Amino acid sequence: MSDTLLYEGKAKQVFSTSDPDLLRVHFKDDATAFNGEKRGTICDKGVLNNSISSFFFQLLESKGVETHFVKQLNDRDMLVKKLAIVPIELVVRNVAAGSLAKRFGWEEGVELPSTVVELYYKSDPLGDPLINRSHVAALGIATPQQVEQIEGAGLRVNGVLREFLRQRSVVLVDFKLEFGVFKKDGKILLGDEISPDTCRFWDAETGDKLDKDRFRRDLGGVEDAYQEIWRRLKGECNADA
Ligand code: TMP
Question: Is this structure's pTM higher than 0.85?
Answer without folding.
Answer: yes
